[in-house]
Structure formats: C-alpha cells, structure tokens
Prior knowledge:
The protein is α/β, with parallel strands linked by helices and 203 residues long. Strands 3-2-1-4-5-7-6 form a seven-stranded mixed sheet, with helices on both faces. Helix 4 links the parallel strand 1 and strand 2. The chain is globular. It starts with a helix and ends with a strand.
Amino acid sequence: MHLLQSGLDALNLKLPKATQEDIIKYVNLLTKWNKVHNLTAICDPKAILIRHIFDSLAIVPFIKGPDILDFGTGAGLPGIPLALALPDWNFVLLDSSNKKTTFLNHVVFSLNIKNIKVVTKRIEEFRFDRGFATIVTRATMKTSMVLDKTAHLCAKFGQILIMKGKSPQNELNGITKFFEVHRIEVPYLNEERHILRVVLRKR
Length: 203
C-alpha cells in the first residue's frame, strides 16, 4: 500500500482509501489468475503495480467522459484502474478473448464496480449508438490500424488515445486528423512512455 500511495502522490492523484484497497485487490486477483490463465507476462505484484497500474493511471489527465471504451483491454488495462479512479464516468472494456473477459467479469463482480461493462466481441462487430468521448488502447498494432478499427465508435469531437512505449513518430505520416504526442512519466518506471491523442471532428 505504501508503494501505491507513493505512486499516486507522484501522479498527483488523490484516491479514497476504499479505491486504493480495490486497486490492491485487483492486483491480487490478477496475480492469482495469472498463474493459471496467463493473462499478462508480468507476474510480480510490485511490477504489476508499476508497469500496469501506474502506467494506466498516468493517462487520467487525458481522459474525457462520459463514455469511455478500452479497446483490446486484455486483463483490464488501462480500463479497470481508470474506472476505479474515475467512478462518475462509464467504461466499456472490450476484448474478443472469452478467457480474458471471464476474468474481467470476475473482477467487476468481486470489487462491485458499478461503472464498467465487459463486452466479448471483435471491434468490427461492436456498436455503440451514442459514440464514445474517449477510446483508449494499449495496442501493439499500428496506429493507422487502430484508427481504422475504432473511428466508427467515436462521438463527434471524440478522441482516440493510443498508449505507446517509445515515441511513435514513424507511424504519424499517414494521419490526416488532428493529433498530439505527449511523453508520459510513470512513477518508478525508467522507460519511455508516450500517448498519441487523435481527435476526430465528425460532421
């Protein structure tokens, strides 16, 4: 809990004690399930806190609501940490892997998280009538592919946030929409982290 509080202080995030306890419970559930279901390559709870939780929470200032989609959420990252930190907004966690969404539903039930809906579908098959204000992904696929797959789900003036390691400059040439690249500082992680923000101005 001390490491969590220290990381939150570094991120300038003030979360209630109950929320911090839920984050620790989530880390413990991920550690437990990971032994059987191989949800993430990172197994150590401390490393999960730094590489997954802090990495996810570092983008809180970029999130806008009320509706947020975490595309290719996997083990719930960044969706679960963000939903816990931003309880007034609605999150959809989308993944095509039934194994992963089974875990996510277990987390949502166990922690009684009210602002998360888990969906097991391919992105091409998913529809959302209102459009999402924010679509976020820690995708490994190319930026152009992320934009192609998610643009139909974005609200007017919605944004797509793509979490990257090193700066994605080599992927930006074909982007015709407004975009920004920001370097993200993740507490206790001595590695580059960036976020690419693309704004869709739909008519």
